[in-house]
Amino acid sequence: MSRLLLALALAASAAVAEAAAPPPVTRHVLPNGLTVVVREDVTLGVMAAALHVRAGSLFETADTAGITNFLQRVMLRGTQRYTALGLTEAIDDLGGSLDAAGDVEYGDVHGTALARNWEPMLRLVAEVALRPTLPAEEIERERRLILSAIQTRGDTPFQRAFDSVLNDLYGPHPYSWPSVGRRESVERTSREMLREHYTSIYRADRMVLAVSGNVPAARVMRVAERLFRDLPAPPAAARVSPAGATPRGGRRLVERPVQQAQVLVGYLGPALLEPDYAAARVLGTVLGGGMSGRLFRELREQRGLAYSVGMLGSFRTGRSFLVSYLGTAPPNAEAAEAGMLAEIERMRGEPVTEGELARAKAYLLGNLAMDRRTSTRHAWYMAFFEVIGAGWDFPERYARAVEAVTPADIARVAQRYLTRPTVIVLQPPRSAPR
Amino acid sequence: MSLLARIGLALVLMLVWGGCGLARSGARAPAPVAGPARYLLPNGVPVIIEEHRASDVVALQLWVQAGARDETASELGLAHYLEHMLFKGTPTRPVGFVEREVEGVGGRINAGTSWDYTFYHTVLPARQAEAGIAMLVDVGVNASLEASLLEAEKQVVLEEMRLNEDNPRRFLVRELFSSAFEGHPYGRPVIGTSEVITGLTRETLVSFYQRHYMPEMFALVVVGAVQPEEILRVARATLGALPRGGTKRLPTTPPPPPRRARLERSRPTAQAHLGLAWQAPRLDHADTPALDLLMSILGRSKASRLVASLRERQGLVSAITSGLSALEGAGLVTIAAQLEPQNLERAEAEVLAEIRRVRDGGVTTAELKRAITAAEVEHEFSMETAEGRARAYGQAETIWRLEEELLYLDRVRSVNAAQVQAVARRYLNLERYVRVALLPQRP
């Protein structure tokens, strides 16, 4: 309680110091190779930590799909010091949260706590990361939950359609399956496979710890060094580099008994560190960003074809995706698909105006800024960009690249990337009673 | 997070922990942060302002005391429809203002409708605060509601209905509310019915607008990197200059007596869903803090009783959560689970067994302490952003009282174990509850 008040008092003093400089970020590589990034923000009463390890779908195969996620989930289910229940109680006692999952480019253990509890929270993160016991019965319990989660994805129309479009878009590339894995691969993942996977990825050189919030940076560094000292730092293994994805295009119908049809059109874009990346994201925003994106204005405002409509982009070290989506009444699906493709085609033909471009940039940068305002999101951003090799300060460089995009850049990336659409239409079976 | 927090979109529901107030614990605090200040403009409209400099943005929110519960039987869905139409411009602010004034400067705007209120929320760069207030006020009272745009928006709202239909969790919650509050405004879907929406005329909507969007129904909330005096000056010149309409909102209808009901619905999904609901007291009731903590102990965290028993120990469900929706006129406790269809009966029996255990044996000191800590933490995190703070204040001002909101965390801290047991006995009847099962129906 006293810490809560302290936090409030600090917030008050920060309010006085008007236009304060952004909170300082410290980056340090420990002797064993673990990178630690700390953002010290004294205006808050809370803190968040994210430990990212370079792993995830990108490093998996059709047979091992979901293994990083499976491993991360089971790591929360028992360590040398805690049982699964003991760990959740220890977290609750700190007023914190602790979770772990596998994603496309990384696996993570992340937690939050009241700022005063930053040290015990980091201790729990280290305990989970360094000393998981992977108990056999907990593996089975988690397997059931993951299989159920896979089923739930299939039961959610948009999710189902989105998984389908990525699958068709990426083909044999590992980005084509969801990070939660496939039913077949999750069913056959053994304890031995999980242990081997753990040993191969939990190495200091492929991990990043990011901490954000009201924490003392210098002490965090010292504590992290002590907590993670035992992390192995073997010589760097050869990096996996899956074959590059190439757009093939195509159209597929997925039949489900739904009230609303889902129409998705996907394209492969440039990788995050390629020069075209910022322009491709601005292009996606011109088309599908917010209420002023072309898809919203044309397909929703003008034609009333949808409630939800827009475009999704992605941070990927391999080829990114641009996926436009829309939900509509089944009889309108055909018109919606044609309308969406026409808007995309128009991007290739007509140049954007300066005004439209300025609006899209402001929207995209506004999104980025708004998403980076909580400790949890700051910790995620720093850990993610550091672990994929772009550097924790990538968002700043990306923002500058977005600002520099010209109409000519948009025309060039539209020509280059908006080709060979991959289309998924999820709709009720024709014969089904409606 | 509780189940209801995920409803989102149009069906914004009041959640006690969706954002509760700032802890201004008088005795313990050596004058902490300034906190929100509440002013009344000359025409009686409240304005709440808080200087918050965590980032260079301002959250502006216009709260309106008009929601689905204010609709007559022939107006179902109009509060929400109006919310959509307010984005279609005013005589001096044609369609496209969102692009020009909000998204074009890096801001965001959206709105939500509940049974008790409608609110319009925007986050802008702090230097845009003055323009943003003028925009919200103009949209609030001068909406054109142009007939052709009104017609076109019908398709959009019908699509929103279809989207809700396809989402099993949203469907489950709606069924629980409609059964628990049968015949009461809280039993109606906020989004309305397709019949009313399809047949909607401009006259009907204009009439609803003119009756409910009066200055005395508004509250303005401003939180961000702003000078309060400056904001107050702008508020006076815009919102404060509007003439009062002379209307008074009708009080909430008393809820129907709690009932027992058992419903089954087929859904085209692979997994089954189970929902149980009990009527709970209204938001301003003295039992709300204890009931809120009880929900936390039962099913809000990984170590909570329902999760530990049904999900972890017995493997009966893949997810289970409990929540409290505390509305202005009544409340609803909901427990929702996702599971294999063959486990439906056992899961229901085990939920009841856990409730019986609380009713008979109460909760432990450790559980209570954890639940209180969780409440403090959730509060801290919800107050990290300007819009999180603005939302808590606006909601309290509209359907509660700001000072109650600011004291809420202290109330939660003072709850004892006996009170938690007492509310379990008072509200969680082992027989009189609504049960909805969604059963997979394979095509």
Outline the fold blueprint:
The complex is a heterodimer of chains A (434) and B (443).
Chain A: H1 2-16, E1 25-29, E2 35-40, E3 46-54, H2 67-75, H3 84-94, E4 97-102, E5 106-114, H4 118-130, H5 136-155, H6 157-170, H7 183-188, H8 191-201, E6 207-213, H9 217-227, E7 250-255, E8 261-271, H10 277-288, H11 294-302, E9 309-312, E10 319-328, H12 333-349, H13 354-371, H14 375-387, H15 394-403, H16 407-417, E11 422-427
Chain B: E1 37-40, E2 46-51, E3 57-64, H1 78-85, H2 97-102, E4 108-113, E5 118-125, H3 129-142, H4 147-165, H5 168-180, H6 194-198, H7 202-212, E6 218-224, H8 228-237, E7 261-267, E8 272-280, H9 288-299, H10 305-313, E9 317-326, E10 331-339, H11 344-361, H12 365-382, H13 386-399, H14 402-413, H15 417-427, E11 434-440
Parallel strand pairs in B: 2-6, 7-11
Antiparallel strand pairs in B: 1-2, 3-5, 3-6, 4-5, 8-10, 8-11, 9-10
Helix pairs in contact in B: 9-12, 9-14, 9-15, 10-11, 11-15, 13-14
Could you characterize what this model shows?
The complex is a heterodimer of chains A (434) and B (443). The N and C termini of chain A lie far apart (57 Å). Chain A folds into two domains: 23-227, Metalloenzyme, LuxS/M16 peptidase-like (Cytochrome Bc1 Complex, Chain A, domain 1), CATH 3.30.830; 250-427, Cytochrome Bc1 Complex, Chain A, domain 1 (2-Layer Sandwich). Chain A is globular, with a radius of gyration of 23 Å. The relative contact order of chain A is 0.15. The longest helix of chain A is centred in the middle third of the chain and has 20 residues, at 136-155. Chain A has 434 residues and is of the alpha+beta class. Helices cover 46% and strands 18% of the residues of chain A. Chain B is built from 15 helices and eleven strands. Chain B has helices spanning 78-85, 97-102, 129-142, 147-165, 168-180, 194-198, 202-212, 228-237, 288-299, 305-313, 344-361, 365-382, 386-399, 402-413, 417-427, and strands spanning 37-40, 46-51, 57-64, 108-113, 118-125, 218-224, 261-267, 272-280, 317-326, 331-339, 434-440. Chain B has a six-stranded mixed β-sheet, with helices on both faces. The two termini of chain B are 33 Å apart. At the A-B interface, helix 1, helix 3, strand 5, helix 5 and helix 11 of A face helix 4, helix 10 and helix 12 of B.
